[in-house]
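Before relying on records like the one below, remember that each one covers exactly one chain. Contacts with other chains, cofactors or solvent are not represented anywhere in the record.
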Amino acid sequence: MGALINALLIILGSMIGQLIGNKLNEKSQTQLMQAMGLAVIYLAISSALKMESSLNMLISMAVGTLIGSIIDLDGILVKLADKVQMKFSTKSPIASGLVNSSLVFCVGGMAIVGAFNDGLLNDYSTLFMKGIIDCFSAIVFTARYGIGVYFSAILVFVYEFILTILAGLIAPVLTDYIITQLSAVGGLVLLAVGYNLLTDGKLKPMNMVPSIFVSIILCFVFKLF
């Protein structure tokens, strides 16, 4: 459900972008993203406050971020995005819009956290919020690149739908406690996303994503003691 909503909002933003995108100056675009950043921060804090174990959260964020930083998930995705962009974005105006917008919509912690919440909790609020952000971004992208942005909605839907299905497959083996805890840790990852939107900061939420999986492992470990 959340993946479909996200895709539809991208299409909506693309339509608006064709109509009024060229009338939005840089200042207006920045203020829109800052407003979305505040909304994401609120959503993140709401999720984080539901945590059952502060110790789990602390260790998960420390170990998970350390793992993500050592692997450099953010750097890997950036390099991959650069290669894809160099290979395809100059082929045609449609390819340029498709590639540039898809990379922005798909790369980041919000898509992963949102898909997990949708698959595990049947809660698509995070993907809905991401969809609104993508909608405003699509306005700018469409004004800049044209109709190629429309096609990015298909890629976003497939990407998030697969993540949601995978999360749903593991849901039966997870208890309510574990789901609540990993959702809370995911909220902290979203907090980094919101901070970047609000301040144009340099946090790397993608490197924090392993914290969600570390939290699941710790839930089972703590249960043994």
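The two ends are 38 Å apart (CA to CA).
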